[in-house]
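Consider the tokenized backbone below.
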């Protein structure tokens, strides 16, 4: 095992020495019709495996494992400040975390990040004159620049979500294969968002496509009801879900165009659905069933999304063997 991301509202008793994070989010499950009680939400984990025994290590606050091809790492930092730095605690902590990550990847020689997962408390909260997600974007972009990484074009896939509490939590997957950064023709690239969404644009691509030689792996970033740069269908969760799936379909199309074959479909992705209001679960599930058209694989979590008017964000991952 390279590592894991686990989503659970309760602490986990883990007795294995693997880099893993617990993201404090509640899994949303179907009502058990026989007794009308919600089933006990289990912790759901995304587990990354290797064919060979990985090597474990620690770099500052990062715990990681790597196998010569792929590195999975995690970092969790309580928000804290250096008194000499006027930036907010979240901004400083984000920059610190990302600098450590890039330092590790430079040191071990894993130059390409395939995917970042970002989780923070109170993502829509406001302090230091700025929404906390925008503070995060400042710290992230400063670290990319300080580490001589591109902040536009060739940037990794990512998601950024709010949890009820907990430290800044980041997981990442990196490797030796240069990924293809995929954009969505229906959306302005996030790294080109105008200033009214914050002083610094978010640093992520709409998807990354990793061609290992034996497999094509697609990481679809967190995707929302955004067309151009604007939120569409505020307060309408069904319409936001439909628009989000149209966006994911466009990203899948762009990835297939790169591959020159229709490898990926809405039906062969693994979805993680972040739902702002748990009462919307059934509406979302029904829209997904109608639009994907075949039984689909999805995990639903209660989370805050990084714009107040967004009710849903969906990310997806899939791997297809090369034919
Ligand atoms: C969006 O399209 C929705 O800041 O890393 C999605 C995926 C979103 C990743 C990030 C933010 C991020 O802008 C929000």
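A designed sequence for it:
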């Amino acid at each position: 095992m390279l590592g894991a991301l686990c989503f659970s509202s309760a602490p986990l008793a883990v007795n294995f020495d693997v880099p893993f994070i617990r993201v404090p989010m509640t899994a949303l499950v179907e009502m058990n019709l026989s007794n009308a009680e919600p089933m006990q939400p289990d912790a759901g984990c995304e587990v990354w495996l290797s064919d060979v025994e990985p090597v474990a290590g620690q770099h500052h606050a990062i715990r990681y494992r790597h196998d010569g091809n792929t590195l999975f790492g995690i970092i969790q930092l309580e928000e804290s400040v250096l008194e000499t730095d006027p930036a907010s605690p979240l901004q400083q902590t984000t920059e610190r975390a990302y600098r450590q990550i890039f330092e590790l990847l430079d040191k071990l020689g894993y130059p390409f990040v395939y995917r970042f997962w970002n989780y923070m408390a109170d993502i829509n909260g406001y302090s230091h004159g700025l929404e906390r997600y925008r503070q995060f974007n400042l710290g992230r972009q400063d670290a990319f620049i300080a580490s001589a990484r591109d902040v536009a074009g060739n940037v990794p896939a990512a998601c950024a979500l709010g949890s009820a509490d907990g430290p800044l939590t980041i997981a990442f997957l990196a490797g030796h294969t240069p990924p293809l950064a995929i954009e969505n023709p229906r959306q302005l690239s996030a790294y080109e968002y105008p200033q009214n969404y914050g002083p610094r644009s978010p640093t992520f691509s709409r998807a990354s496509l990793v061609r290992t030689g034996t497999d094509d792996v697609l990481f679809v970033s967190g995707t929302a009801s955004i067309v151009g740069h604007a939120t569409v269908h505020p307060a309408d969760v069904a319409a936001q879900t439909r628009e989000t799936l149209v966006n994911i379909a466009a990203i899948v199309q762009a990835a297939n165009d790169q591959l020159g074959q229709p490898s990926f479909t809405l039906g062969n992705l693994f979805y993680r659905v972040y739902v702002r209001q748990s009462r919307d679960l059934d509406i979302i599930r029904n829209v997904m069933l109608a639009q994907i058209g075949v039984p689909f694989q999805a995990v639903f979590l209660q989370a805050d999304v990084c714009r107040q008017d967004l009710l849903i964000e969906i990310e997806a991952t899939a791997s297809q063997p090369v034919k």
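The domain at 3-321 is CATH 3.30.1330.40 (60s Ribosomal Protein L30; Chain: A;).
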